[in-house]
Amino acid sequence: MSAQANFEFLDALGQIAADKGISVETLLDALANALVAAYKRLPNAAEEAVVTVDPDSGEIRVYGQELDEEGNVVREWDDTPENFGRIAAQTAKQVILQRIREAERDLKYEEYAGREGDIVTGIIQQSDNRYTLLDLGRVEALLPQAEQVPYERYEHGSRIKAYIVEVRKTTKGPQIVVSRSHPGLIKRLFELEVPEMTNGVVEIKAAAREPGHRTKIAVWSNDSNVDPVGACVGARGARVRMVTNELRGEKVDIVPFSDDPGEYVARALQPAKVREVRLDEESGTATVVVSDYQLSLAIGKEGQNARLAAPAHRMADRY
Known about the structure:
By secondary structure, this protein is α+β, with helices and mostly antiparallel strands. It folds into 3 domains: about 5-110, N Utilization Substance Protein A, Chain:P, domain 4 (2-Layer Sandwich), CATH 3.30.1480.10; about 120-180, CATH 2.40.50.140; about 185-319, K homology (KH) domain (GMP Synthetase, Chain A, domain 3), CATH 3.30.300.20. Helix content is about 35%, strand content about 30%. The strands form 4 sheets. It has a 5-stranded mixed barrel with strand order 4-5-6-8-7. A 3-stranded antiparallel beta sheet has the order 1-2-3. A 3-stranded mixed beta sheet has the order 9-10-11, with helices on both faces.
């Protein structure tokens, strides 16, 4: 390349580096390495060589090298081919495009790395029997079939919220795996609707979920003046309604948490009224006594109420 072309090349390189957040030094190093490979493909090329790119003038030189058995340079000479400017220009274009793609992939990954447990909003792009693709803006997320809610329909173009379960780094950029069935989605949805959760006054201590059917959460208040259940339900049920709407009608039971195991078990079985709870610490089981007319309510449809109440305390560590 001519001196004028070299300066134009450096200016263009600097502009690209600034626009894409890549250092000029990184681009020049990548270009030098690529030019070594291009040089070695030429006939009569030296077995060993280095390429230098002057960061001030943009001048590109190739130096052939002779090495001893220990890899030390014993002789070096200027072996820049006459037509190397044309090769350099073509190589520079390829290297810059590759580096830009790599930098953009890294930026996208860094944006989502460590965000497992966050909630995102995406637009459904396509769906098949393996997974559904969500457009998150700059990246796409995978909603695998195993993380989907049974019988929930994902219509193209509709907007849904999902829970990030994993962020993987791949050669094509970040692969974000999201879930609609994870119990953590419930917690994040309530955090969006309940300011008392955002500021730490109200907490979800435990949760159990049968996706698409029913969820039970146990809530606690760090302020005696704040009713945790009322805060989650909201005025006329407005807050919990926003959560159930996002969950496509999945019912949510909200019960007050208690440090007392017997009282906690009784509350977890709401809306049934429990007369007595007998705990067996050795077996880790509880026997619950209810009136005959409360039995079916305590068990729930197909055993759902009892099933959700049983593991609630064990779900607290899943967030």
